[in-house]
Amino acid sequence: MRDWIQQFLDYLTVERGLSKNTIISYGSDLSKFADYCESKGITSVDGVKKNDITSFMLSLKDKGLSSNSISRYLVAVKVFYRFLVRERLTRIDMASVLDSPKLIRPLPEVLTIGEVDSLLNAPDGRDGRGIRDKAILELLYATGLRVSELSDLEVNNLNLDIGFLKAHGKGGKERIVPLGRTASEWLKRYQERVRPKIVKGAGAPYLFLSRLGKRLSRQSVWKIMKKYTSAAGIKKNITPHTLRHSFATHLLERGADLRSVQEMLGHANISTTQLYTHINRERLKGLHKKFHPRG
Fold first, then answer.
1. Which one of 1.10.357.140, 3.40.50.2000, 1.10.443.10, 3.30.565.10 gives the CATH number of domain 113-290?
2. Beta carbons within 8 Å of 162's beta carbon, 6+ residues apart
């Protein structure tokens, strides 16, 4: 089974062109499925029955995993079996008739405009690290980039003269995103005053660098967010993705159309972007309840 899982991951990489993070996620989920099967004495996909897959899902529930997480595992198993049938590695798709658990999608955390201002003003713009961190936060909020897209952003994909950048999203898809005046000013300040002092060979193509001149990792960006969230006195549990959520929500609140926001976020399906319209409705309900005399 594990050999075929590796063949499946190779297929996703070479033929489907999925992102590295997606491949890692599929590999992790299917490895746990293989572990479960082996614990039951099952070593090949032909030995797996529908009840075995169901039992695997129930074991995940017993471990306290959410419906969303269990659904992710089931999707991995389903896609794996579709691959096996298509490649004629097995005759029967054992996972085809299984339903995913009902998804209850929690609304993402969103910052108010005041909280965004506090966060973006937290770095000290008088020293090198503060200028870099200020540029990172301004860019995340101005563009809605995923943290992986920011980490992988190269200098050549940034055009400050016209105020746009080229992002490489999931599945290697490219999109053009406007920057805005404030983000452009801080990026220019970072490129002129800070980056030339720390850039080294390995980090040369990348825009954001560590103090050692290497590409800034996703984990480092997460730590930067935590640092300035605390400095700004924000009590919410936020991540770099929170600025992406806030970017989309604030645009829609001010009248941006859904298709434009979808394009800027790089969502393949507009139903993903529509989640932010639910956030707006929930916030309006909260405001009504708080301030209306009969709310």
1. 1.10.443.10
2. none
